[in-house]
Design a protein that fits this description.
Elements lengths: L1 H55 L6 E4 L4 E8 L2 E6 L6 E5 L3 E4 L8 H15 L1
Antiparallel strand pairs: 1-2, 1-5, 2-3, 3-4
Length: 128
């Protein structure tokens, strides 16, 4: 009877150590996945939600920048297509998808005085 009890205790101890080893291996993997979710997946979903809201709120008259870096002004919208006017020539109108719009902003066309002075200095050096 005593030997049967010893065998059962040994089997329970072996099973417990196996579960402990499995838990020790599984815990770091769960922590790693949790860290990846907090550092990568969650911020990406938040950013994608902001981009989707921006693209859906585009209206006629907004100045936009396409993913290709072109600045334009929205002239018309039809479903998922936006008609954009590019350049100062008012006859260049191109239909693009809303998903091809990177942001809504005006182009900065001001001239920086320091850059202008440096350009003049470079032109004088080249003339000599």
């Amino acid at each position: 009877m005593l030997s049967l009890f010893v065998l059962e205790a040994g089997a329970a101890e072996t099973q417990q150590s196996t579960l402990g080893g499995l838990g020790a291996m599984l815990l770091p993997m769960v922590l790693l996945f949790g860290l990846m979710y907090l550092m990568i997946i969650r911020p990406q979903k938040k950013r994608q939600k902001q981009v989707d809201e921006m693209q859906s709120s585009i209206s006629i008259g907004d100045a936009i920048v396409t993913n290709g870096g072109l600045y334009g002004k929205v002239v018309d919208t039809v479903n998922n297509i936006v008609i954009v006017e590019f350049g100062t020539n008012k006859s260049v109108r191109v239909p693009i998808e809303r998903t091809a719009i990177a942001s809504v902003k005006e182009p900065d066309l001001t001239i920086n005085k320091e850059d202008l002075i440096e350009d003049k200095k470079e032109d004088k050096k080249e003339d000599k």
